[in-house]
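Troubleshooting: if your tokenizer reports a length mismatch, compare your output against this known-good record of 558 residues.
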Amino acid sequence: MKVNYPKTIKVGFAFAIIMCFWSAYDFVIPLLLENAYGLSNAMRGLIMGLDNLLSLFLLPIFGKLSDKTNSKWGRRTPYIFMGTIVAVILMFFVPVSANKALKQSLALRTEIINTSSSNYTYEDHEGTVYTPHALYSYLYEQGATNSDFCDRQYLENNNITKEKYLEIATNGVTSVDEKGKLQLTDDYKKFVSTGINNYASTQVFEKVTKNNMGSLVAYMIILLLVLIAMATFRSPAVALMPDVTPKPLRSQANAIISLCGGVGGAIAFIIYTVALMINPTAYIAIFAATGGAMLLLLIGFLFLVNEPKLVKECEELCTEYGITDDDETANVLEGDTDIIKTPEELKKEKTSKMISFFLILASIFMWFMGYNAVSSNLSIFTTKTLNLSPGIASIVSGISMGISALAFIPVGMLAVKIGRRKTILLGFALAVVSFILVFFFASQTSPYAVYLFVIFYLIAGFGLIIANVNTFPMVVELSDADNVGKYTGYYYAATMSAQAVTPYFAGLVMDQWGTKNLFLYSALCVVVSIVLMYFVKHGDSKAPPPEKKLEFIGAGDD
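Known-good structure output:
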């Protein structure tokens, strides 16, 4: 018995649609919130988290609804079709709703950075008039308590005194090109840009956002509608793989599904990278192109996938190999062919499985608390801390995730060899190592930090793939054939609840102690997930011998 790769790839088109959207969302939306509204890390995280909070309630509902759906197109396909269509129509209006505020914000940021000109003065939202020297003196002094303005330790390590800092700051603009873009010195970019950009964000919030709250409200309403549309088919789309794949093969099949999702993410990556390289604020073009890509993937899915036929083929295969969802079959798969358990033993085992189920969900929750804290702030960290342009920042993250995606297939095979739980623990450990390395060696503006960040984030990418390929199969391993969608909803309830709260908590950490402490926060969360996963006893599955069919006499009769 082997994974049917062509069939699994066809089913993976649905997940490619999902990841195409979320890849663009996770990288671009934080940039849009930052550039258009100048929100603090905590406020931006709160908005990103509210989106996921909505999905937390909707995903289990639509997963369960799809379990009970009976149509000629199958249980899952109607949700995939309608959800994609509605999401694509609505998502175009997300950047449109913020476009007016974005234009005002960019004009104000340019005005503030122009304080580097010797005869320029600037009046902030409190009416204080700054000369260039006075403004940068203020930012330097604020750095004593807020490293986002001026990381004093970093300056001292590079022999930058206050006098040298002011000299670099007030002579930072060398020229303005024909498009109005400021040309800045390398030292300004290295030692001053982070501080002045953060100061500019506070002024944007005070001068632009507070005077255009309607724009922010409209943005949030439209975004919530988009996420409702996405939530209607995420659980059904993911549940389709277990519907058409026997239990023992789901880790390997999920690796293929994840690879398909990676292709969808790569499509989004190409779209937003090219767009940001051409225009750092081309958000409307990004969402329009991403929506078009989602529609093309949907057409491919509808053309290739006949859900009722694939489900019937899976049922026939399970019958041929004697694979069912009852406990006796599970015993045979684990080699316990001579054990017939008493009702008391079955009850005890059911309790043990339920404990493992909750431990798995808790471990997944903490894993996403850690990893999503980084992923939801990745574009902000790379542009503001590493001082990269949005286009280059997207390439940096894309290289790391693209290379690590090569591990999808080997990871699925590794789970068969050593088990899902051990494989997941390995992935968690890699993520912890990565985050700690970034904290110590790749959290400052320098060419070396960029290269180190790519390498370390690559390690985290391997950890992400190892965990994601195997955590979902562990959850649905404990389900029955008639409630896979519900268990898929539980899985996403754990992931979405984490993503609902961690952007805010991570933002508080960044605002209070500096951006680089984000990675310590994330490492601590993943350590907790390791502890929880260590105590899990159920959710692994071993495939039957490839050369020999299993015959389970009387399995499932009683």
